[in-house]
Amino acid sequence: METPKRWFRLAHQTLCITEIDFEHRILIGFTQLIIWPLTNGLRRIHVNCRQCRIHRVLLEAADTDLDSFERSTSDKYLGSKLTYLPSPVDLPVVQNDPSLEICKRDTKLRTLDSFQRRHASVVEMTDPDKEAGEVTIRVPPEFWPLISNSRPLKLTLEFSLNKPRSGFYFVVPPGEGSLADRGVHAFTGTVSNASRLWFPCIDCSEPCTWKIEVTVLEDMVAVAPGELIDAPYYTEDLQHKTYHFYLSQPVSAPYIGLAVGAFDIYPDPLLTNGATHFCPSGLLPLMKHTVSHIPDMIEYYEALLASQYPFGTIKTVFVDRAYNDFQAYASLLVFPVEILHSAQIIDQAIETRKIISLAVASQFFGCFLTMQTWFDAWLPVGLAGYLSGLYQKRVFGNNEYRRIISNEMRYVTNYEFSRYGILLDPSKRTTKTTHFSLASPHTISPTYLTAFVKKAHLVIRMLELRFGQPVLLQVLNKLLVLARLSASSILPSDEVTSTHTTNNEDANALRQPTGTTECVNELTSDENRRLRSSTGRNTSLVVPPCLSDEHQTNLILSTTSFRRIISMVTGQDIQNFLDQWVTHSGHVRLSARFHFNRKRNVVELELKQDLHSRGTLNYTGPLTVMLQELDGAFMHTFKLEEGRTSRDLPCHSKSRKHRKKKIPLANGDEVDMDLGRIDAESPLLWLRLDPDLAVIRTIGVDQPDFMWHLMLAHDRDCLGQMEAVHALRSCPSAETRHALASLIANERVFYRVRMDACYALCHIANELSAVGGTTGNSAPMGTSSNTNAATSCLFPIFWQLFSSPAARALIRQNNFQNLQHYFLMRAMIRSLATLRVQQVCPREVLAFVTDLLRQNDNSRNGYSDCYYRADLIKALKDTLTPAIVVRGVMSASSLPFEARTVVEEVAHHLNLDSQIVSYRGTVTVACLTAIRRLQRLGFLPVDPTLFYHYASPGLFHDLRIAGLEALVDYIRGERDQKALDWIFDELIERDEISEVSYPKLRFEAVQLLIRMPPFQRGETGSRLDTPQLVERLWTLMNYGCSGDSRLRSAVADLYHILYGNRRPTCLPLPEGVLLVRVKEGRSVLKLSEHGTTGVDPPGQSADQNRTDHLSGSEMEVRTRRGKRRRRRATYASSIDRDADLLDNDDDIPGDDYVDELDDFEEEEDDYEEVDEMDADFYTQRRAPSGFNSRDDLGRPMADALLHPDETGEGALYFGAKRTFPYEPLIDGAGGIEPSAKRRTQRLSDDDDDDD
């Protein structure tokens, strides 16, 4: 794509925030832009600005000294000599934000296609790459001679931001005391190219230098991009202070952010560039541990790229209610407080390391080297992901890295197969393939964007495999070197060394008054005088020079420039590669079969590409096949042809008679193998396709089970073993069971493979028990022999690894020093809960998990056991199945023993966690999930009161999300209109940011509704499918979330899930709309009340009329009273033309989202089908009668769960709301969280009642 042509170039921008009012949520400031005209025809200047109110626009000449201008400016910009300069002029403000309401007319059809077309048009109307913006400034004629001489202009805009709904977020916790005592803070967070939400700017890839000044209260801290210039300057009353930041590296406006608040400050002791970290009060110990790895990341990236960190410093800020997992700005990173952890937390430490490594990598590619347009976004995103992946490979190991690549590839292929193909560069797209526009980050689906990021990483890795890692790193070094040279080109060589001194003098001279207008006047009148006196020069810093075309190109990443640099370094052109994987969507789907030809001693391989399924492409390129033979592993590479491909692969092993005693493997090891089951004449042991994941693909290989057994036992590649584990799930036999059990017990195998094998082994045990045991002997279903055969698959291995030294079946104290054993033990427990004999979990499993939970002792463990206890509760939940159904009057005595045990344990641990909070409330989250499953299966009254409580404000974010998830699942099962209305009223439709609802919570609530829709598309008779819901979703998309484009796109996804691209069937036919059905040869016209007839056609009810909707062969023609006289021929031709368009665009494939779940979660879907069959039974049981006895359970929480109507508003059994908002982070960290005592030592039932 060509570089966007603009009529001017931005050289420098000053951003001054003069006041931040936390009580009223107001931000006041002004900004100045130094603009160099690039053409004589510049008559309008477009600036991006949304949500802000522009109070004043001032235009003036940037340089007031004519002689100095000619001396200091290159001949490129000189014209005829000027004799005078125009005076500063106040200009009228012309501001228009079309995104406030997408469809301004009353659109009665409510089709998603019409909305998306209008949405894409609205975004394009304010695209700065297309010379557009929300604010239009007309250049007065007196400035035209200045433009003709290519002289710079200075544009000043005063603005204010009042209660912003997006972009800039105020966090003001309720309570008494000063603002600092309450921990108030504010920060920025947006999608790409959305800095316009909080200050006027050129919101695109227009790099320039920056000066940022922020005035805050004296007990607060301001953090912004760039280097801090000297100490903050205090006002005369000592009530405010001003921070001065200068960013000498040119960056674009989307990478300018801000954070202000009462933060605890931690200077990094290892980094020498002034790196500093900030967090809310009370979290400093956690932050010190969390950021301790950042110096190592920067050092690794610098060594890898042979280039220094691009900015002068780095600052990290941890905030509450963050918009994303991380927000990367130039030298500034904003993280959520949820990722903070102590040294005692295991699981979150891994995830936090991944998030921070990606954020630091984004400083190199993303902030310093930015994308040219959204069509080039795949490059910085993919390169940052590639660097982060290499760091994770160094920290977590090669096996973990390969597993991450495999999981990303599986996610991408599943998305493309079930939804849409992913176009990394849609600039050449000619047909519509999605229900949303791909041309802007403001219109793209969030789910699509997640898959987009993963595919970009995979494509960059494919380039690494093609050229080699050293060559690709050389390409990245070339990009960074050119960018660094271009960034330093805007300063004269004799001023590079004096930049910091000059900046210090300039910042100390800036003494801003309180009012914005006074600030502007003082700056415009005295700036030149002050800078001349401080620098001794007239124009070097007063009028910063703009970047040349070459230098600006080096600072911006585009597909064209990336291809050119690769060609310079390698001498190869990657145009064909880009055409296949970047400008086209899809992945490769292969199926393989092979046969060994004894006479020719070759393997006849037949490959077939699936070219008809959704999201596939026709791949014609190299493919690698590995043949493991008796004499070793041999690689064969050939070109894959279109459709079917047949290849004869020669074998290097001739005979088994004279083979070596040990068989060499691909990694050089030599092992003994049991070859009793393979063909005596065949030297082939197993076959693998694309073992290095060099192609984005899904492959199905048809080979005998004994080859999978050998591959599982002896392949040294973790991906090969995982492939064998997955394939053996469909091969139930005693040999498969033995092979999986041996793998789990093998300490040398990668622990992730052993974890997957646990689930596969339990699946095989279920299959064998269903056919009568592990052998061919027939055994009665459900007998003890079947039960013993099922439970004996993992119990011996578990006790062998984790039993106490004193006795084999005695549970030992927790010791998580061996992290592989820690994860393996949890996987064993979770997988054991999936065992089934006659669709019922064996009672031995329930007793086993219950004993582990009751006798859990973490008193001598150096790590927290919160995730372990949460998995035990999840395992208890998984042991329940809908095969056991309770009917009639519900009482404690009528509950099965299994359900009563689960209720008892869940109630106890929910009570315990409400008093001693686990890290991030992980135990409470697991308990809420278990309670909802108990309700679905009929073991508890179906009552959402508990979920309402945890979804309400005042609790930690994770707990609110858990309550929302349970509530959304309740809505799906019970079709409860009241609960659905509560989610919309209290969360999604609340546009005012507060503790009750904030952007991240609103977005995740919509994502939950997407994952678990309240009803299925086309479902008839659902009481939730109402015109009111259509109106609510349409209002949200249209203007309800205008400031948050991510939320707007998510609501559009939900609208598509429920109604598709067609008109919702629940809507009545609007007046004046004619439905023309081409195939049926009839039409339906909805007349107004004054029409001549209102009688439905014979045999068609009013409900059927309301369900008429558009399809591929239908169209809607809106008639207007003033245009009813049309010629019949014109009308008929328009019908045919529009019907053809609908045939092409309306039936977009992939209407249902497919979640990527764990193996057991896929099996659990079978049980959920049974749950929905009993939906009417649940409805009758929503107001159950009370229990006959309350002594069976003895715990108040369990009693309250069984009697929701007798406990009032929840004060008796709901955990008290926390006064300290970050208590779940503190209580579960640093060993502060006391572990649950053994059941024999903890409080008695009477003591529990006192709680």
Written account of the structure:
Among the domains are: about 1-65 and about 85-95 and about 135-170 and about 195-255, Sandwich (Immunoglobulin-like), CATH 2.60.40; about 100-135 and about 1020-1070, no CATH class; about 370-490 and about 545-585, Neutral Protease Domain 2 (Neutral Protease, domain 2); about 590-695, Immunoglobulin-like (Sandwich). The strands form 9 sheets. Strands 1, 2, 4, 5, 8, 11, 13, 14 and 15 form a 9-stranded mixed β-sheet that branches. The chain has a 5-stranded mixed β-sheet with strand order 17-18-19-21-20, covered by helices on one side. A 4-stranded antiparallel β-sheet has the order 9-10-16-12, with no helix packed on it. It contains 40 helices and 35 strands. The longest helix has 22 residues, at about 445-465. With about 1250 residues, the protein is of the alpha+beta class. Keywords: Initiation factor, Nucleus, Protein biosynthesis, Transcription, Transcription regulation. This is Transcription initiation factor TFIID subunit 2. InterPro entries: Aminopeptidase_N-like_N_sf (IPR042097), Ig-like_TAF2 (IPR057345), Peptidase_M1_dom (IPR014782), Peptidase_M4/M1_CTD_sf (IPR027268), TAF2 (IPR037813), TPR_TAF2_C (IPR057991). Pfam families: Peptidase_M1 (PF01433), TAF2_3rd (PF25316), TPR_TAF2_C (PF25577).
